[in-house]
Write a structure and sequence with these properties.
This protein has 217 residues and is of the alpha/beta class. The protein has one domain. Helix content is 27%, strand content 24%. A 6-stranded mixed β-sheet has the order 1-2-3-4-5-6.
Length: 217
């Protein structure tokens, strides 16, 4: 099967911020992938939250911030990096942005330094295996070699000791729209260690969740 004959969009072409929004808005995945034992159920979320107004006047943003509005002292911050295997990346066996894991680790470490209750670094691996699978009725995705390549590049070593680490994977193995027919999973490599959140940071979090979501333009 040639990529020119494919009828549906590629999962690898979904921008990172839209991918995060899609996962958080899903009634199942929003809980399954982002709410773990000990966390409040049904947390609200804010995405692409600028840090310049937070205590300490830090730079950058939080990809996803979750909390129960009645418990702003328990805010969970997620930094997300998408690694994509589009059709060309699979042909050449060269994943996109795998080398940027160090950057998301640094960002997650900053959030731990700021003192959020829990902090996670998430790597989302998206795989468009439609051409590779040549129209077959199959759910095959990455080869064992490529899976090992990704696994070896993502570790807890560059992370602050209390930052959790998870790897999400989504594979589009046949020519159906993204997130319809395919496989997905979460490998939770390490849970975040909770910390006591400061009153100033808690006040800032409460203010964020008292008003409508505002995204970075």
């Amino acid at each position: 099967m040639s990529s020119t004959g494919l009828a549906h969009d590629s999962i690898a072409d979904i921008p990172e911020d839209q991918l995060v929004e899609r996962l958080l808005s899903d009634p199942l995945w929003g809980t399954e992938f982002f709410e773990f034992a000990g966390m409040p159920r049904g947390m609200a979320n804010r995405q692409r939250v600028l840090l310049n107004t937070a205590p300490g006047n830090f730079k950058g943003d939080i990809d996803a911030l979750l909390c129960d509005r009645s418990r702003p002292e328990q805010a969970v911050a997620y930094q997300v990096k998408r690694i994509k295997f589009g059709i060309n990346q699979l042909r050449n066996r060269t994943p996109s942005k795998l080398q940027e894991y160090k950057k998301v680790a640094q960002q997650a470490n900053l959030l731990a330094q700021m003192g959020f209750w829990q902090v996670y670094a998430y790597v989302v691996v998206v795989v468009d295996a439609r051409e590779q699978n040549s129209g077959k009725n199959t759910y095959a995705g990455l080869s064992s070699e490529l899976r090992s390549l990704v696994a070896s590049a993502i570790s807890t070593h560059p992370l602050d000791a209390r930052v959790g680490l998870g790897t999400l994977d989504f594979t589009q193995p046949m020519d159906y729209a993204p997130f319809t027919v395919g496989t997905h999973g979460l490998n939770l490599r390490r849970l975040s260690t909770p910390a006591l959140q400061s009153q100033d940071l808690t006040k800032w979090v409460a203010g964020l969740f008292s008003k409508p979501q505002q995204l970075i333009s």
